[in-house]
Amino acid sequence: MDSPDRVQRREAARFALDLGDEALLATCEVSFYVAGGPGGQHRNKTSSAVRLVHLPTGITVTATERRSQARNRSAALERLRAALRDLTRIRRARKPTAPSRAAKERRLEAKKRAGRRKVERRRSSDW
User: Is the pTM of this model over 0.90?
Assistant: First the structure.
C-alpha cells in the first residue's frame, strides 16, 4: 500500500490537473533566472529561464531552452502537467512468475550444449 503522504500528494496532483493555467500557476512558486548556453547575448543576460515548484506536491520543473520567458513558462507548465499526470498514475504491483517447465528444459539444454562444446575443444587441443 501507499503511504499516507503519497496518497495525499496523488490527490493534490489530481486536483491540480483540473485547474486552468492561471490557477495552476497560483499554486506554484515561480522563479526566473539567467540560463546560460546557446542563444546569444539576449539569453545569457536576461532572466528567461523558468522554474516552477508545485507547493502541494513538491514537484519541481524547469524550462530554459527558449529565449522568451513567456515561452519557457508555457513549456514549464506543460512539463508540470506531465509530472502531475505521472504522479496520479497508480502502478500495479508486478506479480513474479516462475519459469515454465519448457523454459527450464531449454536452459538446461543450452548448458549441456555449451559443456559438450568445451569437452570437444579439450579433446582436439590434446592432440
Answer: no
